[in-house]
Amino acid sequence: MHRRFKDPAPWLSTLRQLRQEQCTPTVIIAHVASPPLWPVTSARTLHTLMDALTGEFADAPLYADLAGMTMVNKAVWLKKLARMPEIHHKLVHGSDFPIPPFPIVFWPQLRQQYKAIRRLKSWLDQDIAVKDALGFPDSVLNRAGELLAERIRLADSLAGPV
């Protein structure tokens, strides 16, 4: 995690100000603000974000992505988030490609599904299969497309015919 993001107060303060001005943008916080080297580094940023998503910013266009959460150092948080359905409406699928997922970390949760997931040739498919097997709803996997649809249409119109 970048040093400037160790304390979430500044970016939450900015979001509060933008909200007061009624111009809150859609914001997707990478990696659910999870610590990079847990348990060596504090999980304060993740907990602060969870509190914001379920409290003060519950009705705001503030989201967190699950990119890179199938890596060894993030798996503990992905498992916890899977057991928190009250936060699922604020989560967005992300893959962190080309960094591969590590399904082996989830073997106790995946059991019989593990071998089928490992046989998938695509890292992206493995990443999605792990999240699906952990119980994340389809809405988490589809939300990025919904949130970015307008931006994609705008980019397409600016690009013109190909």
SSE topology sketch:
Layout: H1 9-20, E1 27-29, H2 44-54, E2 62-65, H3 75-82, E3 91-92, H4 107-110, H5 113-119, H6 123-134, H7 138-159
Parallel strand pairs: 1-2, 2-3
Helix pairs in contact: 5-6
Query: How would you sum up the major sheet?
Result: 3 strands, parallel
Shape assignment: globular
Radius of gyration: 17 Å
Name the structural class.
mainly alpha
- Tally of contiguous helical segments: 7
Topology order in helix (H) and strand (E) letters: HEHEHEHHHH
Q: Reading side by side through the largest sheet, how are the strands ordered?
A: 1-2-3
Number of domains: 1
By oligomeric state, this entry counts as single chain
Tell me, rounded to a whole number, the average pLDDT. Answer: 88
Quote the beta fraction: 5-15%
End-to-end distance, in Å?
A: 38 Å
Let me know the number of strands.
3
What low-confidence regions span 5 or more consecutive residues with pLDDT below 50?
none
Q: Percent of residues in helical segments?
A: 40-55%
Summary of the model, kept short:
The chain is mainly α and 162 residues long.
Structural write-up:
With 162 residues, the protein is mostly helical. The protein has one domain. It contains 7 helices and 3 strands; from the N terminus they run H-E-H-E-H-E-H-H-H-H. The protein has a 3-stranded parallel sheet with strand order 1-2-3. Helix 3 links the parallel strand 2 and strand 3. The longest helix is centred in the C-terminal third of the chain and has 22 residues. The chain starts with 8 loop residues before the first helix and ends with a helix.
